[in-house]
Amino acid sequence: MRVIKLTISYDGTDFCGWQAQAEGRTVQTTLETAWQNITGEFIRFTASGRTDAGVHALGQVVSARTCSSFPLARLPLALNANLPADVRVLQAEDAPKDFCAILSARGKTYRYLIQDRPAHNVFWRRYAWHQPKQLDRISMQAAANLLIGEHDFQAFQGSGSPRKTTVRHVRRLTVDDHATELAPLLRIEIEANGFLYNMVRNIVGTLVEVGKGRAAPDWVGDVLRSCDRTQAGPTAPPQGLALVHVEYPKCGDTS
Amino acid sequence: MRVIKLTISYDGTDFCGWQAQAEGRTVQTTLETAWQNITGEFIRFTASGRTDAGVHALGQVVSARTCSSFPLARLPLALNANLPADVRVLQAEDAPKDFCAILSARGKTYRYLIQDRPAHNVFWRRYAWHQPKQLDRISMQAAANLLIGEHDFQAFQGSGSPRKTTVRHVRRLTVDDHATELAPLLRIEIEANGFLYNMVRNIVGTLVEVGKGRAAPDWVGDVLRSCDRTQAGPTAPPQGLALVHVEYPKCGDTS
Lengths: 255, 255
Known about the structure:
2 copies of one chain form a homodimer. By secondary structure, chain A is of the alpha+beta class. Chain A folds into 2 domains: 94 residues, 2-Layer Sandwich (Alpha-Beta Plaits); 141 residues, 2-Layer Sandwich (Alpha-Beta Plaits), CATH 3.30.70.660. Chain A is 22% helix and 30% strand. In chain A, strands 1, 2, 3, 4, 5, 6, 7, 8, 9 and 10 form a 10-stranded mixed sheet that branches.
């Protein structure tokens, strides 16, 4: 028995999210089918987090126990040959016996992109939220600063997936310009030891209220302290969100 | 009667090209429908060039004669509200009475993107050609240099759309690295006074043969002189190609 750790990337647009479900195309089922095609073995992959429908991944990490002795070096090429073009395996590693993509994770980084100008750029429409008016980055960063640190993020937790504790440690939360060749974008990056359901999209929706001038930065502090979801802004749509990176303890990476 | 000049951008992936046809979704029909929705008037738009199915545009220029007095400043917003998300109007201008997007054009710039590494990046799969092995940029640029200048490009003309003369003036043809956040790409840019049918994709397919090491740069000069399409490389697929810019005489731009 070995434990396989894969780093994968996907365009979430045409997926009903990571998690296998009765109907609809999911990343989990797609990956498991590709694995079965090359090894003949059905195994269940666990992801570091279950991305929702429409959410992308630049560096999602998944793991599974396997009895297959398929050579590690050939795994990415073999899996990619059996995967549709919107999912790619970037890296395959042998992991320690106790490694689990979700339980071993020490932190994650998400990114949210916004196109804030009148006409959206057609090439970013699947990967960024369109806001017709320019958002005030300075106010948004001032508001974001109030969320950095260890807090109870209950006010930013989506319904339907409660956790034991709603306390999380946001290590970094930045709002800046992201220059791309095709369009200037607004980029929000957030790194934390863990995330509640829809936490990033609820934070982004709340920061955008500030960016629009509908609320002052201090209001975001009030929302946080209220621990009341109804006080926060709307949930930002999925297409702007991407899971960028998952952090594991050094010893769990390769040894 | 006025002549309207629009600069538009589109993601060609889900279009059967620019030109209206009996079946299939085209950019021309999509734009004409949007125009009819806001003005009630059916007019025919002429594009600077008819992009093929799957080919993109960053800055396509189209023109039409109209009797509508719809205010110029409100045109982009009004048209965009009636267009699907994969076409955007970037700019609207009043043009001189004798302006025609195709006949007045003095030159065009196209860009072709290639991902040349084992696993393609999922976010570029709709906008770049995937080549699993790295291409030799130095050889490709040496070959490209042989095509710069005024030549008979008959060897690079696709069948089915003959022109009066196959002589064109290639002013610039560059092969370089195009660093993007998500993936390093190879970029080929070509500027000419005009293009034959499939000329860019045939040039790219031929340069890639050189980049793969299947032929020496000098071979491209032989192909050019042969004036024989069967001597050139294969036609590169459409998704890597984008019309970047169309050049018009200064006086025809706004006066």
